Amino acid sequence: MIVNKATLVSEVATAQGITKKQAEDNMTALFDCIKKHLVDGDTINIIGSFKLGVRERSAREITNPMTGERQMTEPKKSVYIKGGKLLVDALNSK
Fold first, then answer.
1. Residues spanned by the domain of 33
2. 44 to each of 8, 69, 77, how far by Cα in Å?
3. What are the tens digits of pLDDT across the range 3-59?
4. Same domain for 86 and 75?
5. Per-residue confidence (pLDDT) for residue 48, from 0 to 100
């Protein structure tokens, strides 16, 4: 099952006893804060749950499988998530 933002908004609204609009505003503000910190190069550590960070991927040489031509990829940044102990333990207890 894939859980989307609308599902999360609905669950947060129900759990907190607030409207869906309030829940969506809160979640949007949270996502904006997370994005800002990741863009700034910060690591976000929610102890016990997860850790979010940015990894720099260097340029590398690849081969086009259709033509055999060798090309260089561009360096880029990617987001990683690492599960914290409480999350990992919850996943493995099922």
1. 1-40
2. 20, 40, 16
3. 999 999 999 999 999 999 999 999 999 999 999 999 999 999 999 899 999 999 999
4. yes
5. 87
Residues 11 and 35 grouped into a single domain: yes
Confidence (pLDDT) at 73: 93
Q: Which two tokens stand for residue 68?
A: 């055999």
CA dist 31 and 52 (Å) reads: 12
pLDDT grade, residue 71 (50/70/90)? very high
* CA 14 remoteness from chain centre: 23
CA–CA distance, 10 with 16 (Å, rounded to integer): 10
Q: DSSP class of residue 83? A: E
**Single-letter amino acid code for the residue at 75:** P
Tell me: do 92 and 51 sit in the same domain.
yes
Burial of 65 (0-12, 13-18, 19+ CB in 10 A): exposed
CATH number at residue 71: 4.10.520.10
